[in-house]
Amino acid sequence: LQEQKILLKEKKVGKQSILFEKKPALLSAATVAGPKESLGPLATEFDRSYADTIIKEKSFEDAERHMMEEACYLALGKGGLTPDDIDFFIAGNLLNQIITSSFCARKLSIPYLGVFSACSTLTEGLALGAMLLEGGFAGHLLISTSSHNSTAERQYRYPTEYGYQKPGCAQWTVTGAGAVVLSSTGGGPRIEAATIGKVVDGGIKDPNSMGTAMSLAAADTIYNHFIDLEREPTYYDLIVTGDLGGIGKKANEDILARKGFEISSNYTDCGVLLYYPHQQVDAGGSGCACAALVFLGHFYKKMFKKELRKVLLVATGALHSPTSYLQGESIPTIAHAVSLES
Amino acid sequence: LQEQKILLKEKKVGKQSILFEKKPALLSAATVAGPKESLGPLATEFDRSYADTIIKEKSFEDAERHMMEEACYLALGKGGLTPDDIDFFIAGNLLNQIITSSFCARKLSIPYLGVFSACSTLTEGLALGAMLLEGGFAGHLLISTSSHNSTAERQYRYPTEYGYQKPGCAQWTVTGAGAVVLSSTGGGPRIEAATIGKVVDGGIKDPNSMGTAMSLAAADTIYNHFIDLEREPTYYDLIVTGDLGGIGKKANEDILARKGFEISSNYTDCGVLLYYPHQQVDAGGSGCACAALVFLGHFYKKMFKKELRKVLLVATGALHSPTSYLQGESIPTIAHAVSLES
Question: Using CA atoms, how far apart are residues A243 and A249, in angstroms rounded to an integer?
Fold first, then answer.
């Protein structure tokens, strides 16, 4: 078996990682942000900003879908493309049965691959997409993810009207959507490696402590990324996690330091960057749109301008459901990493 | 763009299809069935059968997870493999946040790619898996899906204790799980082509008419499969849909006949085959496990024995959620097809 593996898996490196030769490009990207996000430090970075969370739709779910559809069409437009030019649409989101993505796929009418890894959906999509392009199965892919504070609150927690008080370790689910066109050719930052995460569960049961729970997955994936590819943290200009928030970010740093990798000097987290402290988001932002808005809205542009050359993006997801929580289960978490260069 | 596309997408054929050269093999497969399934016409085909739906677990959700885990370990064992030999675990299921798959991935500790396309998850997994193997990104993959009547009923409809009476067009969600090891080498039926479905929505809003709703997606995917690959229905020994049931099967036949493809002579549906009429499943079986039990338990073995040489497997999924239904939305549907040969 081992010989067979070595023979066949020329692109797989180590236990969890892939190295790309052709390095698919992030040709164009777009972001659509909600009201709170549009008042934060990255306010000027988004392609569209809304002053309210329902944006003239009938429901928050419709508003989330509106945002994903808009992000998709904007990303296509920036790339000079139409849905017809796209081979596959890879998307996912937090809502039950990933309805935002599926209804968006209905509108786009592009062959559709639904994915789910909670808030690590963006990097799952990018990693899978890069494999499909590198493998010659597609020329252009559209990848999208979204979240909405009000749809997530009522699905995962309580109706917002209850005014439920959260502890300081809780995070604020980001309202917004991001979309990116991945291409086998063309300009833009390129995906040169990916590390697919394992599910990690430290026994944490408190859904208000997701940053801490997900820090274990982030640290596991980043550690295995370094081991698989024989890299040090300094290989990257920036390592950025998806939505660990302030507490999870610190935990991730600490775990990796104990494992021999000091990342604090070139490490940040999207959930820490998206809001000002006075915006009362407790430990920071979370949700699929957190990494989407901050990476695609902010760091992606810096990569385009070559202000950043090598970035490791590690979106992180908590894979529990309200049912598994109520049944006393702990929170399984995952993180997928993609290494980008420009 | 068009030239670029032609140049780069050597493996993509037409709008939605992929042709595989190396043709990844379904090395080993296993099925675990619930009580009703174990009293049906295929009772002797399953690797493990349970006489009740809770199988000594604390909840139906735990029981579903138990079945998926068992199917995975059985499939690995039949292939002479352990979780360590598997590069990626690709899985999905019907439950919110696909918890069955994610908790199973926690146990297996294999790098995990969560997917969701409702009851077409099996073929989404097979198609994606075949691309990852063909592209050289993996040597062995484990693909699994499951459903459970009691977890699905309470999530999508009513607690079973209510004794809700269903109309005759409703279907019975299958209790069970299936798992299959996909390999870049080795024996077993091989995946030689795949067609990725578009989301199709005929405006049907009744969640008790999912067979009819999904028949539109099945017909669309099968039609595009024939067009993309320039094939006729007679190319296949068997065309088998996932869970259209009696009503949806007839609708699918009728739509394709009107589009110029007469499939009725070599076409069947997993949801029609799984139960006896006296088992009171109304229009037939449904759920992710429907295609998994019938294809992996029954037709897969026939392919191994070369009693069937060419099979087109088209699992079908309804992508609505209880929320989208309650908000007055119609049911978006999808079908992914894989062409197998032995």
Answer: 8
CA distance A282 to A260: 30
Residue B118 is nearest to which of A97, A327, A329, comparing CB atoms? A97
In tens, the pLDDT along B130-186 reads: 999 999 999 999 999 999 999 999 999 888 888 888 899 999 999 999 999 999 988
ipTM of model: 0.96
Answer whether A9 sits within 8 Å of B103, measured CB to CB. no
Residues 172-211 of A with CB under 8 A from B: 184-185, 196-201
Q: Name the β-bridge partners of B172.
A: B285
Pairing of β A267-269 and β A238-241: parallel
Cα dihedral across residues A257, A261, A262, A268: positive or negative:
negative
**Residues of B with CB below 8 A from A16's CB?**
111
Res. A43 pLDDT band, cuts 50 70 90? very high
Any B CB within 8 A of A148 CB: no
User: Rounded distance, CA B338 to CA A105, Å?
Assistant: 20
- Sign of the Cα torsion B273, B192, B225, B128 reads positive
The b/e string for B293-327 (b: 16+ C-beta within 10 A; e otherwise) is bbbbbbbbebbbeeebebbbbbbbbbbbbebbbee
> Shortest Cα distance from A294 to chain B (angstroms)?
23
Contact between residue B337 and residue B194 where contact means Cβ atoms under 8 Å apart: yes
From the list A98, A196, A323, the residue facing B116 with the nearest CB is: A98
What three-state secondary structure class fits A194? strand
CB-nearest to B111 from A112, A115, A196 is A196
Confidence label for A264 from pLDDT (cuts 50, 70 and 90): very high
**pLDDT (tens digit per residue) in B224-257:** 999 999 999 999 999 999 999 999 999 999 999 9
**Paired strand residues for B156:** none
Instruction: With beta carbons under 8 A apart, name residues in chain A contacting B117.
Output: 112-114
B3, B7, B137: best to mutate for the A interface, most A CBs within 10 A: B137
